[in-house]
Amino acid sequence: xxxxxxxxxxxxxxxxxxxxxxxxxxxxxxxxxxxxxxxxxxxxxxxxxxxxxxxxxxxxxxxxxx
Length: 66
Ligand code: SF4
Ligand code: SF4
Description:
This protein is of the alpha+beta class. It has two helices and four strands; from the N terminus they run βαββαβ.
């Protein structure tokens, strides 16, 4: 499950996230980035690397103990 979200209209396409991703899971094209879910391990390195705070890391929701 992909926990990284790209905020609308915030990405500057600088490529910083692409360079830090250890899984080569981010594809930067002209005016567009895509995160490849099958490769992403949700390590969040891209989130911390983004100078524009364009990426959001959603914490996994734990099911309540019954
Ligand atoms: S969370 Fe990690 S593996 Fe996924 S796209 Fe970001 S840097 Fe790559
Ligand atoms: S580091 Fe941030 S602004 Fe740069 S390409 Fe990645 S998501 Fe976009």
